[in-house]
Amino acid sequence: MMKKVAIVGAGPCGLLLAHYLLRRGDKYQIDIYERRGDPRTVSFSKSRTYPISLNERGMSALRQIEGLEEAVRAVSVEMKGTVFHQKNGKTRFTPRQKPLVTLDRTNLIIVLLEQLSQKYDNSRLQIHFDCSCTAVDFVAKTVIFQSVLTDSSLKIPTNKEEITFNYDLLVGTDGSRSAVREGFLSTESFECEDKYYPTDYKSIFLDNAKNSKTHLKSDNIHTWRLDDGTLMVALYQVDGTMSGAINFPREKNQVAGLSSSKEILEFFQKNFPVIGQVMTEEEAEAFLNRPISRILTIRCNRYHQGDSVLLMGDAAHAVSSSIGQGCNAALEDVVVFDNLLNEYSDDLAETLKQFTVRRQPDGYALVELGDYAFPSSTSLFIEFIFRELIAKSLHRLFPQVFPPSLVDLIFETTVPYSEILNSYKGWVSKVKKSNEKVSTNS
């Protein structure tokens, strides 16, 4: 009998999950509900969009669906390494053995949507946009949505409609502020820790970068770091423009005090001259008006409820952007779930239980690595750089004795996050103590 699946959240994780479930034949009927509009037809604000980097962990998940890898690469740029720009104008280049595939998150979603629509008709797949999840009933196995109806000619909301969906499987892939996860809070023995990462960010878009005379290499990620921990990250997009984000400690926020586009331009020209040369007055004004974005991290003690509800992606283990693993981990969740469906012959009760058993340790380790892989203090950051150089050299000379460096394990491999954390627990503990001291002193 075909099972009715409700996927809440049409981000990369939810859409890839639909691909995996639908290829299993006639076992699943998929309904996807997304609170925002269809990105193929609606232009979203750039205030919180950002480029994402897919390493082997994420790309291998896409690769298992025919045509996905090629479609994603067509709207991506490969990054062969990272350039660290220093105050004195000099640069330090760190190459990658396996290039990162970088693209705007919205473009990844559009690719996944287009591929779904091409492969499956509405007999097994329904995608509902502008539908917010408002309530879940795990006992009755129902989920309620509020749909915003829009006048197509006026493009304005005209009415609201309540939709009740009866499910056999409910999957929350609806992000760090998951409405599905909210339903877990009333269940027995569920524990969830949510906290804000101490670094906030603002997105930045440099549309005239392709006409710039700065000559930044288009196949490298470019970073700048100030002594107070402020970090600027910028990279080229497939259309030749640049985008990225400036990350700043919440307690030492230089950006919040800037009150005019002139002050924005002066700030970038002084602290990040290369970016300051490219930034226009229009982008400075837009940057000024963008809200400061905060990063919520999530740790849960389990990802399933009974035999019919599951959390995946950021809903289960939202992580800071510091190690670039949020999307990679979310896509990997889908692979883990698919493998378990194979192992337990689509027995949902056992598959969901085992998903928590297999994945929760990695989800916890992922957040821990995101919080403490990289230090806040400048002195410890210098130590981190030397540690990386030594670890890379030792692994290259004696690979059977010395593991890869921490960065290489995170970015270059599919080694489970729990194993990475165990290998570098001493360093993570040291960074944790240092960051807490920095936070206390500030």
From TrEMBL:
Is Oxidoreductase there in the keyword field? yes
- What would be an example GO MF term here? FAD binding
Q: Which InterPro entries match?
A: FAD-bd, FAD/NAD-bd_sf
Q: Which GO terms describe its biological process?
A: kynurenine metabolic process
GTP-binding listed as a keyword = no
UniProt keyword terms in alphabetical order: FAD, Flavoprotein, Monooxygenase, NADP, Oxidoreductase
Q: Which domain of life is it from?
A: Bacteria
Residue ranges occupied by any FAD-binding domain in the UniProt entry: 4-339
Q: List, alphabetically, the Pfam families matched.
A: FAD_binding_3 (PF01494)
Q: Which cofactor does it need?
A: FAD
Coiled-coil region list: none
Q: Which PANTHER family match?
A: KYNURENINE 3-MONOOXYGENASE (PTHR46028)
Descriptive protein name: FAD-dependent monooxygenase
Which source organism does the UniProt entry give? Dendronalium phyllosphericum CENA369
